[in-house]
Amino acid sequence: MKNGVKDPKILSAYEKAAIEGVDPRCIPQRLIGSVPIGDEIVYPNYPQEDNVNWKFLYNRQTNFLPGRACEEYLDGIDLLNFSPDRIPALKDLSKIFSETTGWQVARVPGLIESNDFFELLRKKVFPSTDYIRKENELDYTPAPDCFHDMFGHMPLITNKNFASFYQSFGEAALNAKGMDSKFLETFHWFTVEFGLIKNPAGMRIYGAGILSSNEEVQHSLSDVVEVVDFDVEKIINQDYDVWHLQPILFAIQSFEELESGFKDWTKSKKLIN
Ligand SMILES: [Fe+2]
């Protein structure tokens, strides 16, 4: 960093987006003070149209899951017991996590700054929004909403290997600087958001960015995508574009592989103990 200006090579995709003048919802906010966690989270008084939008997204996406989403994600969907008729309550989801992997949920106001995000992950707290996209954004929304956070991310947090990996991710990211921060952001993109897994039944999806997007869920398993075996060095050096469908994706063999591969690499870099 020179005179408070970061080297452009290490800017995150979202920092670049902020400079390029994109939607303000894509600019991360710094958390001020504490955020409500678990039972502290008050259920919003959603207007009926919000529950209608949840139902539309839930039903449309659920239809695409068989044969596409991985078993571990589907197990999480069963545990979280979503209803199509009503946006879930974050405190109920938090309780299910506390009984499965010991995680909790915090309510956050939108995309949050990376250090706030990593600190929550390190403490086994998943930050989630509780507002939902409007009718004109059902096909695409540039910023996170609760459909992405709940339907996309939360099911896997009930999986012990994924949850352990994700906690280590928060710890490593807090310790990382410069290019290591950039590598971790790229790793997050190609695993948590856009990861594939070779289940015994075939190639399946686990990435939240795919599972919460109608277009990505159909695109990701198509012939036009090049799928590369999980390899930390290859992943962290792969370019990507957050605004377009992904031409290259990486496939793990198992969540044990994701957890051990990530921990071995971050230990070798002295980012975790
Ligand atoms: Fe996400």
Gap from first CA to last CA:
27 Å
Q: Which CATH first-tier class would you pick?
A: Mainly Alpha
Strand fraction equals 5-15%
Given helix and strand content, the structural type is: alpha/beta
Helical proportion, percent range: 40-55%
Relevant CATH superfamily: Aromatic amino acid hydroxylase
Average of per-residue pLDDT values: 92
- Tell me the number of strands: 6
Identify the strand order in the major beta sheet.
Answer: 4-3-6-5
Ligands, ions, cofactors: fe (ii) ion
Q: Which residues sit in consecutive blocks of at least 5 with pLDDT less than 50?
A: 1-5
What can be said about the biggest beta sheet?
4 strands, mixed
CATH architecture: Orthogonal Bundle
Number of helices: 12
Q: What sort of overall outline do the alpha carbons produce when their principal axes are compared?
A: globular
Please write out the topology.
Layout: H1 13-19, H2 48-64, H3 71-80, H4 90-100, E1 104-107, H5 114-122, E2 125-128, H6 146-153, H7 160-175, H8 179-193, E3 196-199, E4 202-205, H9 208-211, H10 214-219, E5 226-229, H11 232-236, E6 248-252, H12 255-268
Parallel strand pairs: 1-2, 3-6, 5-6
Antiparallel strand pairs: 3-4
Helix pairs in contact: 5-7, 7-12
The protein binds fe (ii) ion.
